[in-house]
Amino acid sequence: MWKLLEYAFLGWLVTTIMLGFGSVTVWGEGEASLYIEPSSFVGTAYEPGTDITFYVKVANITGLKSLTFNISYLFEVLGFVEFKIELWENLVSPIMQQGPGYVWFNLSYRTPITTNEPLTLVNVTLLIRDRGETIIDLHDTMLLDIGGAFIPHIAVDGYFNNFNPYDLNRDGSVDVLDVAIVGAAFGSYPGHPRWNPVADVDGDGQVTIIDMALVAEHFGEY
Q1: Are 192 and 106 members of one domain?
Q2: 191 CB contacts (<8 Å, ≥6 apart)?
Q3: How far apart are CA 193 and CA 180, in angstroms?
Q4: Which domain CATH number covers 105?
Q5: For 55, phi and psi rounded to 5 degrees?
Q6: CA–CA distance, 163 with 131 (Å, rounded to integer)
Q7: Do 155 and 180 lie in a common domain?
């Protein structure tokens, strides 16, 4: 339950950022960062059976000698295809492991990396297995300097969502069940006993004929 709420909140946050500013990655100026770019894949154009590729990058880093990180995602939605490690000429015996829903890297460099500008370390290609929503979770990150000391940093996740926004119950298609959701909440508003924010498709704070028309307009879509 809490994981679903986390996904829903992150989806709202990513969408808000994208609508206001475009797809951007934001963190404190000058702060050492390990992050996924692009930060989000959102929209029905990301169809099952196609691939997405993202890049794991560092920025504002000084003396990076080695690092480990794990990337995990819902296996029901995304599956591993391939990876490519950059900076091969500077690598010492890179280690990579992958399984259902995760890919893990352990990288060491002959010459420590110092860069203020974004630098790609790895790119990862995943198969879109189905329609769904998942955090592309960049976690268990450890960045070490030449002396083995931990480098303080932030790790920024990615996000994937290829649900149709009019598929209100997220069963993979816009159908009579979605129309029924709007119908059940028709005429409601926040505080009303039948209020359902999912049915407020246009986000104007009330469920009206406009919401019904929007769902009906996309009836039959996936």
Answers
A1: no
A2: none
A3: 17
A4: 2.60.40.680
A5: -120, 135
A6: 6
A7: no
Q: Which domain holds residue 121?
A: 2-161
Tokens 């790895």 -> residue: 122
Residue 68 within a domain: yes
Radius of gyration of the chain (CA): 21
> In whole angstroms, how far apart are CA 94 and each of 56, 120, 138, 181?
15, 15, 18, 51
- Chunked into runs of 10 residues, the chain (222 residues) has average pLDDT values of 42 42 46 96 95 98 97 97 95 94 97 96 97 97 96 97 92 92 95 95 95 93 86
Instruction: Transcribe 174-185 into DSSP letters.
Output: --HHHHHHHHHH
Q: Which two tokens stand for residue 108?
A: 């060491």
CA atoms 140, 18, 10, 163: torsion sign: negative
pLDDT of residue 93: 86
